[in-house]
Amino acid sequence: MSARRGNLALAVVALAAMLALPAAAEYGDVVLNKRSEAEGARPVVFPHWFHRIRFRCKVCHSELGFKMRAGANTVTMREIADGKFCGMCHNGQVAWAADRCDLCHSGKPGLRSGIQGGHATLGPGVW
Ligand code: HEC
Ligand code: HEC
Ligand code: HEC
Fold it and tell me: CATH number for the domain including 12?
């Protein structure tokens, strides 16, 4: 009896943890700055909310292979030019092409990789 209640409590805690994570990213922007600034470009601001209301999670997190953890993905411009990651859509067909550097590299210098803000603050040039 008490063991079963214990399991239930654990399941509730685990579920709460799972739900807490997506909420943070789904409503905010994700900064990607593993190599951008080190290589002379501004940090990338990815408006997660903007994309998530237009596409299903699995398009990016399964088909495109974006791991569901801020900072977990290493993305390069070469891959984007090859049509991977952001480049699957930012190719001048689904969305504007990868020559619009400033629309993605819009972060202020010094921003670290991770989640920023909430859904009211999405979009380029905010951070
Ligand atoms: C257009 C692509 C795209 C779509 C659609 C998308 N995501 Fe994401 N998601 C990303 C990217 C890119 C990151 C950041 C990865 C990184 O920083 O390396 C991310 C990060 C995350 C994270 C990590 C947050 C953290 O705290 O570490 C979670 C959770 C997440 N997404 C959940 C979702 C859910 C749930 C949906 C659907 C409702 C969704 N995503 C739709 C691209 C997308
Ligand atoms: C669709 C969004 C997008 C556009 C447009 C874009 N980039 Fe990037 N770029 C990224 C992402 C995402 C990364 C990986 C960010 C990180 O972790 O530092 C990146 C990384 C970089 C890097 C780090 C080294 C490398 O080669 O990967 C440089 C330099 C860079 N971009 C320059 C540019 C320049 C110059 C342009 C315009 C010709 C451009 N980017 C356009 C998204 C974009
Ligand atoms: C599944 C397709 C898809 C992927 C993958 C994708 N984008 Fe987008 N993105 C779009 C579309 C569609 C738009 C809207 C284009 C328009 O308004 O013309 C957009 C718009 C944007 C905007 C402008 C948002 C605004 O407020 O106007 C930014 C910035 C952006 N994307 C960055 C990125 C970055 C960085 C990545 C990779 C980490 C990425 N996108 C991956 C489809 C995608």
Answer: 3.90.10.10
CA of 23 to the centre of ligand 1 (A): 10
Say how far apart CA 91 and CA 100 lie, in whole Å. Answer: 10
Regions of the chain short of the pLDDT cut 50: 1, 15-23
| Cα(118)–Cα(74) distance, integer angstroms | 23
Q: Is residue 127 part of a domain?
A: no
Q: Is 25 in the pocket of ligand 2 (CB under 6 A)?
A: no
pLDDT tens digit string along 46-66? Answer: 999 889 889 999 999 999 999
pTM here is: 0.88
The whole domain housing 57 covers: 2-121
Ligand 3 pocket residue status of 111, Cβ below 6 Å: no
Other CB atoms within 10 Å distance of the CB of residue 80: 18
Q: Are 30 and 114 in contact (CB under 8 A)?
A: yes
